[in-house]
C-alpha cells in the first residue's frame, strides 16, 4: 500500500452561468460538493477502498435536492420519479447497475448491492425493487422526492411530448458521480441520475449503462459521465476513454479531451466527464458552459471545487 489516492466528483454539466447564479445558490452548491468530497476523502485517507469512497460521495449528492439524483430527481411524464445508477470496480471489473427504480432513497447503494452479487450486473424496474426489498434497502414514499423547483420544471412541459433537461432554460444535465483511486491502487466509479423531466416509455440514459456512463479498470482509468445520455450512449464514452488509453497509448487527459471535445462535439453531444487513472492523475473535461465538480488528492489534501467553465 502506498499513500497515493485521489477522488473526483461531479454534480452535472450544462449551461451553468455565473450571471444566472445567486450568491446563495453558489454557496449551497459549493457546500454540497465539499460535503461529498469530505465523505469520500475520509474513506481514502484512512486506507479505505475506492468503492466505498465513491459510494459515500454519491450518497451525499443523492441526499441533496440541489442535484438531479436521489432526493432531487426530476418528474417523469406521469408525475413520478424514475432513477438509475451504476458502480464499477476497477480491480475485478465487477459492476452493478439499476434503472427504472422509483422508491429507492439511494439508488447508488442498490447498484453497489448488485455489484456485490456476482450473479447480476444490471437490474431494472420491479425486479430491482424486489432485489432492494430482499436485501433490506431503505425505501421512501414518493413525497420524499418532491420539490417545488422540479415540479415547476415538469409543469412547463407536462402537457406535451417534449422532454426537458434538468433546467430546460439553462440546459443543465443533471447527474452526479464520483471516481477514485485508493491507497491500494484500485480504481472505482459510480454515477446516479433522475434522468430527463417528463421522460416517457421507461427511458434510460447512459448513467446506469456500464461503458457508456460509468467505467473502471485498474489498467487504465475510472470514468463517470454527465451529459445528454443518448449521445453518451451512442459514443460509449466511458469505455472509449479507457480504450484510447489502453490501445492508443494516450494519457487520461488526452483521451478525455479527444472524446469530449472532439468526438462528442462532432456527434452533437454536450456534457463532460470526471476521471482518474492508475497513477493518480485526475481529469475533469467538459464541452458545456460549466460542470459542478470537485477533486481532492494525497498531493495536497485540499478540496478543489469548480462550477463554471474556467478550466
Structure explained in plain terms:
The relative contact order is 0.20. This protein has helices at residues 23-45, 50-62, 107-116, 125-134, 148-155, 229-235, 237-248, 252-267, and strands at residues 6-14, 83-89, 95-101, 122-124, 172-173, 175-181, 187-193, 214-216, 221-227, 271-277, 282-286, 290-297, 304-308. The chain starts with 5 loop residues before the first strand and ends with a strand. The protein has eight helices and 13 strands. Strands 1, 2, 3, 4, 5, 6, 7, 12 and 13 form a nine-stranded mixed beta sheet that branches. The protein has a four-stranded antiparallel beta sheet with strand order 8-9-10-11. By secondary structure, the protein is of the alpha+beta class. 32% of the residues lie in helices and 25% in strands. It has one domain: Glutamine Phosphoribosylpyrophosphate, subunit 1, domain 1 (4-Layer Sandwich), CATH 3.60.20.
Summary, kept brief:
Helices cover 32% and strands 25% of the residues. It has 311 residues and is an alpha+beta fold.
Describe the secondary structure blueprint for this structure.
Layout (H helix, E strand, L loop, with lengths): L5 E9 L8 H23 L4 H13 L20 E7 L5 E7 L5 H10 L5 E3 H10 L13 H8 L16 E2 L1 E7 L5 E7 L20 E3 L4 E7 L1 H7 L1 H12 L3 H16 L3 E7 L4 E5 L3 E8 L6 E5 L3
Parallel strand pairs: 3-4
Antiparallel strand pairs: 1-5, 1-6, 1-12, 2-3, 2-7, 6-7, 8-9, 9-10, 10-11, 12-13
Helix pairs in contact: 1-2, 2-3, 7-8
Amino acid at each position: 500500500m502506498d499513500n497515493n489516492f485521489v477522488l473526483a466528483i461531479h454534480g452535472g454539466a450544462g449551461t451553468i452561468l455565473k450571471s444566472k447564479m445567486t450568491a446563495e445558490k453558489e454557496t449551497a452548491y459549493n457546500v454540497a460538493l465539499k460535503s461529498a468530497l469530505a465523505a469520500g476523502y475520509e474513506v481514502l485517507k484512512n486506507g479505505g477502498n475506492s468503492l466505498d469512497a465513491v459510494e459515500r460521495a454519491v450518497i451525499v449528492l443523492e441526499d441533496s435536492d440541489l442535484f438531479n439524483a436521489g432526493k432531487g430527481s426530476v418528474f417523469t411524464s406521469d408525475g413520478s420519479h424514475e432513477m438509475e445508477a451504476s458502480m464499477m470496480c476497477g480491480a475485478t471489473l465487477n459492476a452493478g447497475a439499476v434503472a427504472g427504480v422509483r422508491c429507492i432513497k439511494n439508488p447508488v447503494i442498490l447498484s453497489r448491492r448488485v455489484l456485490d452479487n456476482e450473479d447480476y450486473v444490471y437490474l431494472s424496474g420491479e425486479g430491482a425493487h424486489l432485489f432492494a426489498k430482499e436485501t433490506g434497502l431503505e425505501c421512501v414514499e414518493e413525497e420524499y422526492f418532491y420539490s417545488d423547483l422540479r415540479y415547476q420544471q415538469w409543469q412547463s412541459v407536462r402537457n406535451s411530448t417534449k422532454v426537458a433537461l434538468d433546467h430546460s432554460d439553462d440546459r443543465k444535465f443533471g447527474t452526479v458521480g464520483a471516481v477514485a483511486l485508493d491507497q491500494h491502487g484500485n480504481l472505482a466509479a459510480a454515477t446516479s441520475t433522475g434522468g430527463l423531466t417528463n421522460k416517457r416509455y421507461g427511458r434510460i440514459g447512459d448513467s446506469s449503462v456500464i461503458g457508456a456512463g460509468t467505467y473502471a479498470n485498474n489498467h487504465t482509468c475510472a470514468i463517470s459521465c454527465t451529459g445528454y445520455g443518448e449521445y453518451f450512449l451512442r459514443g460509449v464514452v466511458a469505455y472509449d476513454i479507457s480504450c484510447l488509453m489502453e490501445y492508443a497509448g494516450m494519457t487520461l487527459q488526452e483521451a478525455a479531451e479527444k472524446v469530449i471535445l472532439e468526438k462528442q462535439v462532432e456527434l452533437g453531444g454536450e456534457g463532460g466527464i470526471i476521471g482518474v487513472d492508475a497513477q493518480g492523475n485526475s481529469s475533469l473535461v467538459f464541452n458545456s458552459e460549466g460542470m459542478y465538480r470537485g477533486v481532492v488528492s494525497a498531493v495536497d489534501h485540499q478540496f478543489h471545487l469548480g462550477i463554471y467553465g474556467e478550466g
